[in-house]
């Protein structure tokens, strides 16, 4: 254990850093805690989206309001203070960088650096320590702290403790990025599913309800075709429910040896109208974006007998089956009944490429024939939720 900091204090700082992964608004408090422990005066964390040139995170602590307002005036000179862009990009990510060692002339008594003279010296800053959080073609992130003249230059203690904190700072930012990407993907999936008139229920291996789109929730309210019982989605048709349960267990036990029939079942409601329910195994990535905690999750898509434009349904199917962009293009043409030769011609692709995409589609959907894909797409008709007038369909 480091002689420069007690295990209790180090653990406390690390805990605050990881709190920021879940709530980025807590960075000022975490940076302030680091400042207090290491006799630093101010802290700045910045993460820039290099593709768009926009900040994804910008937070500070310790600055007076007057200097905080003036910070943008000097931002262009900060890289120069550290020796220029090349020097900054060559700083190792695995080590803290100390300004007085990287570019001693920048903070010397006879410094002529504009940033130091205009921003640092008036506030009494004589040194700084920084950590690279992320550095690639898409993202640039750093966290840095200024040292006031009352405490002299950055020394071995500050460097060693920051070295201990460095991997946790980097991991916290990495976790934040993953969570943000997942939030965006989750929002996208929910948006697509909620745009459908086809009722969709995402369930666990015991039919535990994890998500229902708007049409699904409206259908469940009617309690005529599907209902929510004890937190589980159940078809009111008992025979169809047993068939679904059997198919689900068959997939879980032997996912590679499924029946060649379409993965779902047909049934009639209490008014003897025909329905089809499709059981779609979800990839772990898609399932995780909706809700975690299940070894395997499935989407139940219910469709009634009326014909409809299935473009939105095909979009949802491609999303739920986790198809790539190229696979989605082939999938839509397969569902339209196009032969492989015509698909290759329309997509300007080699027949072997189309064959590879087709095999991947069958593998992901669990189907084995193009006729099954056509039947799947053709049966996805919208269902009017309760309260909508006849003839009015949701987009």
Pick out its properties.
single chain, 395 residues, alpha+beta, five-stranded antiparallel β-sheet, 47% helix, 19% strand, elongated, disordered C terminus
Descriptive overview:
The chain is of the alpha+beta class. It is built from 16 helices and 12 strands. The protein has helices spanning 7-22, 27-38, 65-74, 78-81, 85-89, 99-102, 114-123, 156-194, 214-222, 238-253, 284-290, 311-320, 325-335, 340-347, 351-365, 370-378, and strands at 42-49, 54-61, 97-98, 125-135, 139-148, 200-203, 209-212, 226-229, 232-235, 264-268, 274-281, 298-303. The strands form 3 sheets. Strands 2-1-5-4-3 form a 5-stranded antiparallel beta sheet, sandwiched between helices. A hairpin with a 5-residue loop joins strand 10 (264-268) and strand 11 (274-281). Helix 1 (7-22) runs antiparallel to helix 2 (27-38) and helix 1 runs parallel beside helix 8 (156-194). The model is unreliable at 257-262 and 381-395 (pLDDT under 50).
């Amino acid at each position: 254990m480091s002689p420069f900091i007690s295990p209790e204090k180090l653990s406390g700082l690390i805990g605050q850093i990881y709190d920021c992964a879940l709530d980025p608004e807590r960075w000022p408090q975490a940076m302030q805690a680091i400042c207090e422990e290491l006799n630093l005066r101010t802290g700045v964390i910045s993460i820039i989206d290099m593709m768009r040139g926009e900040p994804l995170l910008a937070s500070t602590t310790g600055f007076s309001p007057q200097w905080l307002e003036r910070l943008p005036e000097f931002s262009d000179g900060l890289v120069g203070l550290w020796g220029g862009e090349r020097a900054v990009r060559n700083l190792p990510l695995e080590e803290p960088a100390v300004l007085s060692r990287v570019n001693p002339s920048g903070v010397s008594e006879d410094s002529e650096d504009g940033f130091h003279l205009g921003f640092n010296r008036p506030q009494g800053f004589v040194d700084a320590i920084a950590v690279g959080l992320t550095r690639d073609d898409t993202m640039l992130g750093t966290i840095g702290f200024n040292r006031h003249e009352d405490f002299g230059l950055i020394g071995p203690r500050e460097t060693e403790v920051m070295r201990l904190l460095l991997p946790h700072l980097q991991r916290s930012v990495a976790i934040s990025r993953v969570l943000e990407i997942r939030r965006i993907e989750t929002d996208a999936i929910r948006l697509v599913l909620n745009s459908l008139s086809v009722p969709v229920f995402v369930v666990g291996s015991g039919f535990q309800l994890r998500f229902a789109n708007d049409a699904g929730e409206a259908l469940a309210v009617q309690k005529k075709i599907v209902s929510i019982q004890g937190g589980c989605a159940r078809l009111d048709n008992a025979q169809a429910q047993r068939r679904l349960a059997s198919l689900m267990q068959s997939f879980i036990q032997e996912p590679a040896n499924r029946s060649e029939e379409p993965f779902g079942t047909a049934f009639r409601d209490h008014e003897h109208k025909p329905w089809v329910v499709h059981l779609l195994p979800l990839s772990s990535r898609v399932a995780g974006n909706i809700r975690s905690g299940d070894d395997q999750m499935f989407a139940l898509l219910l469709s009634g007998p009326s014909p409809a434009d299935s473009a939105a349904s095909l979009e949802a199917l491609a999303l739920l089956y986790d198809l790539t962009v190229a696979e989605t293009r082939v999938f839509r043409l397969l569902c339209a009944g196009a032969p492989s030769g015509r698909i290759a011609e329309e997509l300007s692709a080699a027949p072997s490429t189309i064959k590879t995409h087709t095999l991947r589609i069958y593998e992901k959907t669990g189907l084995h024939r193009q006729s099954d894909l056509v039947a799947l797409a053709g049966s996805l008709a919208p269902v009017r939720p309760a309260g909508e007038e006849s003839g009015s369909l949701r987009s």
